[in-house]
Amino acid sequence: MTFGFAPSSATSISAFSTPPGGVDSVNRLARMLEPAEWASAGIPLLRSPREVVSGLHSRHRPTPATAVVAVLDHEERLTASASFTRRDTAAADGWDFRNALLAHLRRVIPHDLRRRTPVRTAVLLYCRDGDERWTEEDGAWMWGLRDACTLHGLRCGAYITLTGGGWQVLGEGRGGRRPSSLSEPAPLSGLVTEQQPALTRTGGGSAQALRRSAAR
Description:
seven-stranded mixed beta sheet; alpha+beta
């Protein structure tokens, strides 16, 4: 698969030239990470990204606008995961994404804030329309994932997009054609068979709708 970046306006907007009413837009753009920032952040590489992606795809069956956050142990085994959809009407804002990710992490796994060093890693799979190139929405998810991990005592792991053309680990250039947002989920195997899915319920006031969650 090819790997590239869609044009971003984040680096071309100056806070000193913001028109009236544009402060929220500038703040929103500040809450996103460019691919170069993400690549230089020391994000740990997945040993078997295809296995992780295939397992999460089989377990949660994501459709466009679905985010799947998963927590892996030091051996890259799935400890907990949750999936939810983002609101189509909301602008891509890392603050909102951080809050949604943190809320779902708190529902499926205790925090590790008392540990000196994180021992578990959170990864995010986001299913969306378009191609594999980075978008500002991806940048907002990256910012949200990094911040949510810090607040929950986890190591920030890979951000993966799932589109009609396949999957892509952004910032690394690794990807494949299957699974994709159009392919049928394969039977659970390998990494994710050690945990059985369990549905959790949330209150109706959640900003993001919980679709499915699985926890140990």
